[in-house]
Amino acid sequence: MELGLLYSGGKDSTLAALLLEEFYDVTLTTAQFGISDDWKHARKTAETAGFEFERLELDPDVADEAVEIIREDGFPRNGIQHVHLHALEELAERGFDAIADGTRRDDRVPTVSRAQAQSLEDRHDVDYIAPLSGFGRTAVDRLVESHLEVTVGPSEAIDRADYEAELRTLIAEEDGPAAVGDLFPDHEQTYVTDVR
Amino acid sequence: MELGLLYSGGKDSTLAALLLEEFYDVTLTTAQFGISDDWKHARKTAETAGFEFERLELDPDVADEAVEIIREDGFPRNGIQHVHLHALEELAERGFDAIADGTRRDDRVPTVSRAQAQSLEDRHDVDYIAPLSGFGRTAVDRLVESHLEVTVGPSEAIDRADYEAELRTLIAEEDGPAAVGDLFPDHEQTYVTDVR
């Protein structure tokens, strides 16, 4: 069975790929608006780990909508969620038997509710799988430590291809770099360099 | 890392074992009150599939409490849930690094909420993992078809070692066989005979 996994090059989506590869023919798909070239980092990790890779082009209007949501809220959570649901809809149109993402049990964003999952499956005749949704933070950290080689650092210094990076770039272009610091809390990100 | 998985011999818990075996040293543990010998069927499947197997003895008082709940409700859901949470508490005391069960995204019972999972982890210093909780019914069915050999039939004809079987036996002994038919809806169960 062919499965497309939304892939950022981060530890969660890489671990999700390892969990699924015994059961599916996994293609790592990195969603992007064409705002930056960060998707190339995800492609590099995908190639190093031996997975098929595809780009998934998103609707630029959705980036503008997400930025507007983030400006109004003053924090990025709902804007990132908006992009994630759009990315799953686009991925569901690609003809895979199943689609997946790297959302964890303890993630605040993005989250896909049971009702949203069922709706996605029914409308697109595809299975939606969140292989890490039954794993808590500690369990994920332990598996990452034993199976992945990662680089950790603050969000702005790490080369990964998540929506946040492109939305940060868009906001910096439109509102200036200071706006990014106001809207996005500092937190550490990880980028996977290899699998063991 | 050592992981103990609550195991019935059914398709969900067997599939959960296959998903986890790449990442953990999995021991299949069948919880039982000592009411019937159905746990031997689970042991047989565990041995056929090449997994370590242990019995997990539950508190007989919990079976009595569950039967009382089922009699009052007129349906088995909350009684089975009561036993499942007790079984997880007992399993968490066994010294595994992680414990797991076969609950699916679409299961109505048993279910373990995010708060219950976190509480279990914090109190017992153990990871709780529900590897199928990100899989819907169709995805599970497809994986079962490609990876397991199963026997399907009505609940009373299938040899598996879930709590329901022992609670049915207890109710039949105390209230007569007709009570079982009144309290437990007819539904088909599967028992795994081998993995592919």
From TrEMBL, chains A, B:
**Pfam short name (any one):** DUF7411
Q: Which InterPro entries match?
A: DUF7411, Rossmann-like_a/b/a_fold
Q: Which GO terms describe its molecular function?
A: hydrolase activity
Taxonomically, which superkingdom? Archaea
Q: Does the keyword Oxidoreductase apply?
A: no
* Protein keywords: Hydrolase
Task: Show the SUPFAM superfamilies listed in the entry.
Answer: Adenine nucleotide alpha hydrolases-like (SSF52402)
The protein's name is Alpha hydrolase
Q: Which species is this UniProt entry from? A: Natronococcus pandeyae
